[in-house]
Specification:
Blueprint (H helix, E strand, L loop, with lengths): L1 H33 L1 E4 L5 E7 L4 E6 L5 E5 L3 E2 L2 H12 E3 L2 E4 L13 E7 L6 E8 L6 E5 L5 E4 L4 H4 L3 H4 L14 E5 L4 E7 L2 E6 L3 E2 L2 H12 L5 E4 L4 H7 L6 E7 L4 E10 L2 E6 L5 E4 L3 H5 L3 H4 L12 E8 L2 E7 L5 E3 L9 H13 L4 E3 L15 E10 L2 E13 L4 E6 L5 E5 L23
Antiparallel strand pairs: 1-6, 2-3, 2-8, 3-4, 4-5, 7-11, 8-9, 9-10, 10-11, 12-13, 12-17, 13-14, 14-15, 16-20, 17-18, 18-19, 19-20, 21-22, 21-25, 22-23, 24-28, 25-26, 26-27, 27-28
Length: 453
């Protein structure tokens, strides 16, 4: 009996507890609902209009979910900013009720701003009337159209009210696909140049023929594609606007050629009194941009060129051959990525020396590049003092061969002339790697197998 009684009491307790929790949950939900001046589904919001004494700003959502600004101008919107605005307005909370049945709205400054929220499931918009700022705690007096009560909106609402049209505009107005660009021609304050993309590499064609610093040009295209307006100076490139901003005679003119699309886009930049202006043939607008873009545009020729001798990454090297005097060494990585001697079976490789040697050609940059016409004999390269060949694994069972010829050492400055056989020009680089070239196979053999474990 005792057990049965205890069980009955427990069941009753659980039922009462469930009822209490359900009641509290509904009460909490009701309180939360009561604190909302607006409760909408953000996905259903199709239009937002903000009317103030200064202006009327209207945002409208297209069928594909993209937000446009339709007043006071027609232009594309900043999707993140407007979506955030819609999110704020869909569940707009208030802090407390000031007055249930006010007789005079004027004492609250209502309405100074009217916010109309249109949704796809209602014929009429929800309207919020905003009054003056409460000087005591920076909250805002407000009421919903159709309701009598005056409420206080959080002081954080000020962040919304203080936003300008500029905050909601799409500031990236010159967007293009960087992968479509096949060549770039530029006229800058430092030099005029042309680069062309071949496979995944960029090559300078003007003012010299050279492998280009590919990362620089990829960054340049990315910067141009994501160029943000700090200010919209003019909606149209009128002659007057171009003259005022100096874009009729720009400091920089960059032409992007999309060869496969048979199109081109021209960018112009000009600085007037520390303000940098930009325009593009892809848009009628003139904008002011951050001056940092000029650091990418205005580079000396030496920085536009690829100054690394090998132009590869050390981990990409799968095979290597060293020819020096009577020495011929050939090494390759096994399936586990471990270097092994070819033709010297059983000899353990000193991996530390091999890796250091390869990393030198990965990281070392030329202090000078010598362009044709030139006589290779003047630089100790006819014949060369030695030759190193690296096989670069490019994936998909493809590999590239990079051969570097070693020339004459410049004794007084400890540098040496070398030539990558892919190019007609020479590099002058630090000569420290010469000490790492083995004089004998034993120089690259590990003394004990334990060193390599």
């Amino acid at each position: 009996m005792k057990f049965k009684t205890t069980l009955i009491i427990f069941v009753v307790f659980v039922a009462l507890l469930a009822f209490v929790l359900l009641f509290e949950s509904k009460t909490t939900q009701k309180k939360e609902y009561m604190k909302k001046i607006v409760s909408l589904s953000q996905e259903n919001i199709t239009k937002i209009a903000i009317d103030s004494e200064e202006d009327t700003v209207i945002f409208e959502k297209t069928n594909d979910g993209t937000w446009l600004i339709t007043s006071p101008i027609k232009t594309s919107g900043d999707q993140a900013e407007i979506n955030n605005l819609a999110s704020q307005f869909s569940d707009l909370m208030f802090e407390r009720i000031v007055e249930e049945t006010p007789e005079d709205l004027g004492k609250y400054g209502i309405p100074q701003i009217q916010i109309s929220i249109y949704t796809s499931d209602k014929a009429d918009p929800e309207k919020i009337l905003i009054g003056m700022e409460n000087p005591l705690d920076n909250t805002f007096f407000a009421k919903k159209e159709g309701e009598m009560r005056i409420v206080l909106l959080s002081s954080s609402f000020k962040n919304i009210l203080e936003k300008k049209l500029m905050d909601f505009r799409n500031k990236i107005v010159f967007k293009f696909r960087t992968d479509d660009v096949q060549s770039i021609t530029a006229s800058t304050r430092s030099t005029d140049w042309t680069v062309v993309k071949t496979d995944e590499e960029w090559f300078l064609e003007k003012p010299v023929s050279s492998l280009a610093n590919s990362s620089h040009f990829e960054n340049l295209l990315l910067s141009l594609s994501n160029l943000q307006a700090q200010e919209f100076v003019s909606e149209d490139k009128t002659e007057e606007a171009l003259e005022e901003t100096g874009l009729n005679k720009p400091d920089f003119l960059i032409t992007l050629h999309m060869l496969e699309l048979d199109t081109e886009t021209v960018f112009t930049f000009h600085t007037v009194k520390d303000r940098t202006y930009a325009a593009s043939s892809s848009s009628p607008k003139i904008i002011r941009v951050d001056q940092s873009i000029l650091d990418t545009l205005d580079m000396e020729l030496r920085n536009l060129r690829e100054r690394r001798v090998g132009g590869f990454y050390s981990w990409e090297v799968s095979k290597m051959q060293v020819l020096q005097d009577d020495l011929s060494l050939f090494l390759a990585k096994d399936e586990d990525g471990i270097w092994q001697f070819i033709e010297m079976e059983g000899a353990a490789v000193n991996r530390e020396k091999i890796d250091r040697f390869i990393r030198f050609f990965e990281t070392t940059e030329a202090t000078e590049m010598i362009d044709p016409p030139l006589d290779l004999a003047d630089f100790g390269l006819d014949p060369p003092q030695g030759e190193m060949t690296f096989w670069i694994d490019e994936g998909k069972e493809q590999e590239k061969e990079v051969s570097i010829l070693i020339g004459k050492k410049v004794e007084d400055i400890e540098q040496v002339y070398v030539k990558n056989k892919r190019f007609e020009y020479l590099f002058r680089i630090n000569a420290s790697f010469l000490d790492d070239i083995p004089k004998d196979p034993a120089d690259w053999i590990s003394k004990t197998n334990s060193e390599e474990k």
